[in-house]
Amino acid sequence: MKRFNLIPKLARITLILCVALFIIINIQVLYGSISAPSDYESERPSGVSETDTIYVAPPTGEKETDRASILAALEGVEPSGTIQFSAGTYLIGPIIRVPTDEITLLGHPGSTVIRGCEPDDFPEFPSALFACHGFELTGARQTVRNLTFEYAWPGLFIGCCFPDDEEAMETKNPGQRKQPGGHLIENNTFKYSPNGLRVIGELEEDVVVRDNSFVDVYHAIGINGGAVHFLDNEIYVREPERVPISTHPGGAIGVSPFGQGSDRTSCAGNVIAGNRITGHPEAIGIRVYEPGESCLHNVIRDNTIMVERVRFIEPWFGIRFSDENDHTLVGYPIVLLNIPANREDTVNVGQEALIEYNIIENNHIIGAEGLGIMVKKASRNRIVGNIIAGIRPRDPFPGNDLHSWPPEWESANGSAIWISPGSNENEIMGNTFEEVDSFAVFIEGDSNRVELNNKNDNVQDLGNGNQVSSSDNADESELEKNRLK
């Protein structure tokens, strides 16, 4: 019978142990060895333990308080840790720098918004560049997931270092050229911003930006350097008047050099693939701006593009207005554009700006005014397997254009692909042209190779040494009729 007396004793021992454990845990929370969670159960990424997670206090909508909460979390996080935001809208103002390597910034399942400024307080350019921001990611291999960025210029800045004020911007310091990279930006939303995100520098590891949404932004992403993999993102326009300052969208994706003069690998290895772009006047552009710069070995692949003419309220910098009575703006679906070659102050021998060895492949362009693909002073590129449909002339020509020089392609107006003078040794092969009002391919460069799928595709060849042929499915006699010299 005595053995039954053990039960109450065991119960008392268990109770004492539970109380002791409760006291120990609360002491640890009090002194910071375990981060106390907010008033919700977070969805923690796999492999991240409770002790790796720092919880940000719920937002208040007061800039000073919200900034302090985020900065406190950044101060406490260790490499490979996670910063878990609460639900709601954090107001942060100027840019917040994130220096710790390999951390994750994680939004709440109930929606976390990072807001640079309140909509009515978003200032004019250039003040907005410094007053309304998101995060600058300077550490290596950081992840940003499930956050919404709005009214920030930009929402994310990957690289170092964004200028703190207008005086610093005037020094024209482009930041640090070599960057660690390795970031993953996925499942985020960027809204109501002049620039959703920007990546600068020559990256030691690729930056991957995938499965994000960009809504009512002027630029979705600006890439200055490489290599960035911008994959399977959705870019669309719902309420263009909500784009700050400009009140309309501009070029969705821009790729250009870091800007270090003679370095010819400063814009290389970027991949723009699988994205859907709707409602921007211009979708994807690769550009060089200064003598000695170059963009090499970039890929534009498997994107679906539906550009549209957009309306503007008042002129904004960088846009050419040829018709004061026209308050609409047009651009191009895909552009390879060598700007120094357009200028009168041509570069010295050995200082040419180059756009070479880039691939435009398997994209679907649906509708454009003027041109489907512009190749301007760009050589040895490949345009392969694209579907280009619904290209109609600009009327009047050129209209208000995104670019600030007189267009030189009036004879090609309404064509699917224009190869400019000085654009040589490009390959244009296996493309499908549907409902193109003018020429399928208009060539003014030299030594380009064109292979057509359809005997009815017209080619205008004004260059020298170009090879125009057909695939096995096209009729050679009909092809020769449609090749105009």
Structure description:
The protein has 485 residues and is mainly beta. The protein has a single domain, classed as Pectate Lyase C-like (3 Solenoid), CATH 2.160.20. It is built from 5 helices and 38 strands. The protein has an 11-stranded parallel beta barrel. Strands 20-26 form a two-stranded parallel sheet. A two-stranded antiparallel ribbon has the order 23-24. It is globular. The termini are far apart.
Descriptive key words:
5 helices; disordered N terminus; about 475 residues; mainly beta; Pectate Lyase C-like
User: Alpha-carbon distance between the termini?
Assistant: 113 Å
| Beta-strand content | 35-45%
According to DSSP, the number of beta strands is 38
- Helical coverage, percent range: 10-25%
The biggest beta sheet is recorded as:
11 strands, parallel, barrel
- Which term fits the overall shape? globular
- Under the CATH scheme, the architecture is 3 Solenoid
Question: What's the CATH class label?
Answer: Mainly Beta
Number of domains: 1
Q: What's the alpha carbon Rg, rounded to whole Å?
A: 27 Å
Low-confidence stretches: 1-49
Q: Spatial order of the strands in the main sheet?
A: 14-15-18-22-28-31-33-30-27-21-17
Overall pLDDT:
84
Structural class: mainly beta
Q: Please work out how many helical segments DSSP would assign.
A: 5
CATH topology (fold) name: Pectate Lyase C-like
